[in-house]
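User: Assemble these into one structure.

Assistant: Restating your components, then the assembled model:
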Amino acid sequence: MSEVLLHAEGIDKNFGVTHAVDHVTLDFYKGEVHALIGENGSGKSTFTSCLTGIYHKDTGTFTLNGKEIHAKNQVDGNYQGVAIIVQEIGTLSGLTVAENIFLGKENEFTTFCVKNTNAMNKKAQELLDSYGFNYIKATDIIDKYNFEDRKLIEIVKATHFKPQILVVDETTTALGEKGRKELFKVMKETRDDGRCVIFISHDLDEVIEQSDNISVLRDGVLIDTVKSADVNTDDLKKLMVGREMSNNYYRADYGEKISSEVVLKGEHLTVPGEIQDFSIELHKGEIIGIGGLSECGMHEVGKALFGASYDREGKVTLADGTEINDIKTAIDHSIAYASKDRDNESLVINDTIQDNIVLPSIENLKRNHILHAKDEKAFAEKFAKQMSTKMEGVHQFMSALSGGNKQKVVLARWIGKDSDIIILDSPTRGIDVKVKADIYQMMDHMRKNGKSIIMISEEISELLGMADRIIIMKNGRQSGEFERSEVLKDTDLIAKMV
Amino acid sequence: MTKFQKFRQSHWYGLLILVLIAFVFWAFFKALAPQTFGDLDKLQTYLKTALYYAVGGCGLYFICVMGPFDMSVGANIVLSSVLAVNMSERFGYAGLLIAPMLSGALVGLLNGLVYIKLRISSLIVTAGLSLVYEALSIYATNGKEAILAANYRAFGDYPGNLILALMAFFLCGFILKYTKIGTYTYAIGSNEVVAKNMGVDVDMYKVVAFVLCGFFVGVEAVLTISYGTSMTSASNLASMSRNFPPLMGTFFGLAFKKYGHPVIAIVIGEFIIQLLFQGFVALGAPTTVQNIVTGIVLLAIVTMTIKPVKGAVVK
């Protein structure tokens, strides 16, 4: 084993009564990619946030190359040799690409309080060029670039100064093929250079493929550290969850007859620049999977069917002929929608779990036109518990929940509303295997109870495992359709995607 | 990308739109009131007024870009103006210039500190403190009208006013583009949490923004008192009406921020507003009509310029 680069000793972090990281002691070696895995809320991100200065640890020490470090914030962490690429967007609108890359490090270009903007732009462009991103201009306002390009800029920002420790926190789910390739290249270079990458991902195949060692956290406690070469995904799932997990948590049925009753029909849907002439018929008790590459337009289909797309052409109708042209009509007619962008489009982050669950059901909860706090609480508790949400209580703020638990709240909301048609966009994005299994089970249960589901997903195995029918999209159009079948393979779907 | 598309994304496109808007309004009123509106002398007068509002608008820009708001601009102008008069009597031009800039900055500092320490809305903080600043202006004048002596009125007319205003504009543009303050102002406005994680001392830079706002309002006070020559202390939030003229310029700055020249947009924006006001005066329209049309035109210009994305969240 090579030399220890970073030693974490007794790291502890509490958020109120939640013990997020519980005295974790762990070594990270020079020249390794060290994966951190665990269920949502297991403390992975909190641990690395303490390291990189996003949070302040309660107790414990981080020792890098024999010297104790305390990052006060991310930039301070950079100066002490640690950097992080976060899951959500980490660049700032309104600033140029160069200003984003050097945010907090302006002093490197400042003399007597005057910033040498030209020198900063020049340096930023040199860096972008050296990474092969020469189509990105340092002087451009960053808003000009899409999510993936902004992630690439973040990679440059986090790695250009060659940090000793690079944390990649659940970043790959936000990236397409090109972005992943670039990220893995940077991770490899970091490892080959004798530095260390701490890699957080829920994609266990990816974890085994990319890492040298894997540490598993559960409820904030370090469970074990294993060599990637010695384990398979089942071993990891067992370590994460603490018990054997069924290898196949998808539906087991094949050949079930789908009802002929059409509950939702989308005809010739077009959203300029997103989808073109897309048509779909959803039957009662059916799960339709929609897949494709991330920019294929599939995410817009969910919005279009929910009446949330602007400039939509074409028609969305229910079985009774009601046209769905806006969100209110959709909700009033028992349609639910969970967006891929959980924090911005699905949840009110600065509000409580209770308010988030109750929100679309307020009218149903009124008694004599008056809303009773007791009823709201009971309603929220019932459905939060039904989804096994990990929480202190329904009064807890959403912002304190992990990604998986936030998703459970989204689903609890729509189960509470008892919607008949549920549109789920990337329902298991950034979610651990246990919650995934819960969600699949819930979907199967809903299907059996006559609910109809449209599941938009970038995960092929999920589409194959859960959908009665799979629609594949490419460049905004429908490129293929498949019936549920045991012989259907991922390669069949991929062939229609690319 | 065609040449026109490239031009549309360039910094000069926004500038061209502003100049065109100004020209259209000038031509409109000139056609309707050729005798009473828009000859060269009158345009200079409109510009004179626009200049001092624009200086205050530059100050407000630092705050509005970040997200908070300052309702004490009017009270600051009144207090700084009466102090300018008092100090000019003792220290001449040095007193006229330094006292309002200093008092403006101190007002800004107090606004910023109270806002940060009490963690309550900037609207409430600055509206509440306005009452204090107004009371101070009464103490400073003993309730009498403060009149600037005739030998200290150089900044009330060209070229003094233009030189002082240009210096303020350059300073504002310089801070925004060539100092950390400018970068952090935009960063905090974009996402405070991310900015904090990047090591930006958010609280400190918010206070700095309030201080800068107060400082530029202090410069506006120099121009205001020099041009108007007298100032009456205010009470019961009577100074509130002075908040809005500089704010209109700030709106233009915010709307044209994406073109990279907010200061120029503030100046031309204020000039456009003056063209509108003076145009209605020339037409003999009642004040109420002037205000209605000016308000609508301001909203229309900003809306057309921003071209809001459908579904975008606007607060």
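The beta strands of chain B are 146-147, 230-231.
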